[in-house]
Design brief:
The protein is α+β, with helices and mostly antiparallel strands and 178 residues long. The protein folds into two domains: 85 residues, Molybdenum Cofactor Biosythetic Enzyme, Chain A; 78 residues, Beta Barrel (Beta-clip). It contains four helices and twelve strands, in the order αβαββββαββββαβββ. The longest helix is centred in the middle third of the chain and has 19 residues. The protein starts with a helix and ends in a 5-residue tail after the last strand.
């Protein structure tokens, strides 16, 4: 199926190709179409991801995790900006702002965190406030319910493991819902 799409594609994105039970078979089949690399990157969620070039035209192909939340994060952080650059957009990344936390946030040491969150605005001061939604170490990062509530990603530097209530963090907007 993928091979048939390569002749008409400029880019291929395959969700569920890494990190799940069937991912080894998917990677093996794709390996027959070209060079694929699957690596662990220092980020969470979405630390396992892949990239390669498939087919005669060496079509750039991204392999996203089986975990749907991880797949969204990898797409937002790695794939979407590259697509926007290829389209000639001047601003490939989503808008970012600084927000004050309304509750403590924990993150995994030595991995850049992209935790889903809910960005709000204080009506009195206009200040951005953010509440992290799931995704902390030991939580169920795969659950989609918090993703449905999220309107941003809270970006946590790799050396930071704890952020206290009231501290400022960098926040990246997600697409607005209609």
């Amino acid at each position: 199926m993928v091979e048939g799409q390569l002749i008409r594609s400029e880019i291929v994105v395959i969700a569920g190709a890494v990190g799940g039970g069937a991912s080894e078979g998917v990677r093996e089949a794709l390996g027959e179409l070209g060079d694929m690399e699957v690596e662990r990157v220092a980020m969470h969620p979405g630390s396992v991801q892949g990239f390669g070039q498939l087919g005669r035209d060496e079509v750039p192909t991204f392999l996203l995790p089986a975990n749907p939340v991880s797949a969204l994060v990898v797409f937002e952080v790695m794939v979407r900006p590259l697509i926007r650059i290829a389209l000639g957009r001047r601003q490939p990344m989503r808008r970012t702002v600084t927000a004050r936390t309304v509750a403590p946030i924990t993150s995994i040491e030595d991995r850049k965190g992209f935790l889903r969150g809910q960005l709000m605005r204080d009506e009195g001061t206009g200040e951005y406030l953010v509440q992290a939604l799931g995704g902390a170490p030991g939580s169920s990062s795969h659950l989609l319910a918090t993703l449905a509530e999220a309107n941003c990603l809270v970006v946590i530097d790799p050396e930071v493991t704890e952020i206290r209530t009231g501290e400022e963090v960098k926040v990246s907007f997600l697409a607005q819902r209609g």
